[in-house]
Amino acid sequence: MVRRQTALVLGATGGIGGEVARRLVGAGWRVRALHRRATVRAAADGDGPDAITWIKGDAMASADARAAAQGADLIVHAVNPPGYRDWGRLVLPMIDNTIAAAHDSGARILLPGTVYNYGPDAYDHGPDMRPVLTEASPQQPRTAKGAIRVALERRLERAADAGVRSLIVRAGDFFGPAPGNNWFSQGMVSPGRPVRRIIYPGRRGIGHQWAYLPDVADAMVRLVALDDRLAPFTTVHTAGHWDADGTAMIGAIRRAVARSGDAAATGGTRRAPAHRLPVYRLPWRLLAVAAPFAPLIRELREMRYLWQQPVRMDNSRLVSLIGPEPHTPLDIAVTATLRGLGCLPAARDQTSQPG
Known about the structure:
alpha/beta, 7-stranded parallel β-sheet, 3-stranded mixed β-sheet, 15 strands, 17% strand
C-alpha cells in the first residue's frame, strides 16, 4: 500500500492557500492546516475521510509550526498578514519558523511568489523585444515590499545548504473566487456589490499579467508531484492570462455581467448596459493623500510601476516540467471570480446576511 503524503498548509483560509489545500486533498494528500481558531474552521468545513485537519496554532509561533509539521512531506507557506498590516515586521519571522519546521520534518516548502521582488529595470527582452521576466532575471526592487520578498527568497535559498528544500512558484496579479489582497477584488470591483463600474489601475495599451488562483494552485500541485526532479531550491514562473493592452480583463467583466441577466448589476435600465459598463482610471493622486493613513493603499501605490510598463513572465521552465500550463479561459475564470466575490446574482443570494 502506497503511503499517502501529508501537507501542512499555512494560510489555508486565504486565496491561494485555500486553493492549494483543496487540490492537494483532491490529489490524495492528507492535508493539515494551522489556524488560531481551528475548532471553528473544522466545524464550518465538516468532517469526512478527505476533510482538512485543522490544528490550533499560530504561524508566528515557531513551536506551533514545528509541531504541526511533524511527519509532513510538504509545507505550503501561503500565510500573509491581512491588509498588509505589519507586513515588514511579520513576514520574515514567519518564513524563519517555516524553515525551522521544514528542517525538523524534512518537508519541502512551497511558496507562492510574485513579481514584486523584481524592480522596474529587471526585465530581459524576448524575441519580440518585449520585456520578459525569467527565473534568472536580476532582483533589484525599488520598494520596501519588494525588498522583503527578496530577503524572504534568499533565506530559502540559503536554507538549501542546510538541507531544506523549497519551491517558489511566481505568478502575476491574482484573481479568483476568494477575496484577498489583490487588485481585482480590492480595486477593480467591490466584493458583495453589483458591478456598476470598473476601476482600472493601468493605461490602455499597456500589457498586464493576471493569474487565476485555481490555475496557479493546479500548477503547484503538479509540480510538487515531481519532487524528485526538482533541485533543492527551485523557482518557476507561470504565464497566467496576458492582457496585451488592458482591455481583455475589462471586456471579460462586462461579458460576465451581461450574461448574468441581472438588471441590478447595471443599476437598472437607466444606466449603461452591461457591455458598456463605465471604466474609470484609478485615482493615483488621491491615493497619495490617503497612503500615509492606510497600509493597503500605501502598498498598492508602491506597485504602480507594474501598471506603467508591460511586464510578462516566461513560463518555459514550468512547461518543461509539467507540460502545458493549466489555463482556464478568461471569461470562465472571471465569471467564477465575480460569483465567488458576490458580485453576480446567485452569489449575492448565497452570501446575504440577515439583519
